[in-house]
Hints:
- The protein is of the alpha+beta class.
- It is 23% helix and 36% strand.
- It is built from three helices and six strands; from the N terminus they run βαββββαβα.
- The chain has helices spanning 13-22, 70-81, 109-112; strands spanning 2-8, 29-35, 42-46, 49-53, 56-65, 89-95.
- It has a four-stranded antiparallel β-sheet with strand order 2-5-1-6, covered by helices on one side.
- Strand 3 (42-46) and strand 4 (49-53) form a beta hairpin.
- The radius of gyration is 17 Å and the shape is elongated.
- The model has no long low-confidence stretch (mean pLDDT 90).
Amino acid sequence: MKKITAVIKPFKLDDVKxxxxxxxxxxxxxxxxxxHGRQKGHTELYRGAEYNVDxxxxxxxxxxxxxxxxxxxxxxxxxxxxxDKIGDGKIFVSxxxxxxxxxxxxxxxxxxx
Length: 113
């Protein structure tokens, strides 16, 4: 099993969610986050004064999938989240040793569905 964490632009969340649903992935966790990579924030104008926004608002989407679903999930996220502009985000993939559904005690792949 793998955990896929995607940091994307907030306005692309619905597109990513729909793309994941089309691949059969229904469970996900969403967090509003702030950060920056190469873009290092931006400058905004407020009441005539310029100020720097060091951390840009982003959305973090986390899913846990069976190993055979990883490539399809990544492709769905890339296709849905890409704008071809700086700040499109990143995808991180990590191993998951164990998953347990609290309500039933089901484990691993049984706990994902």
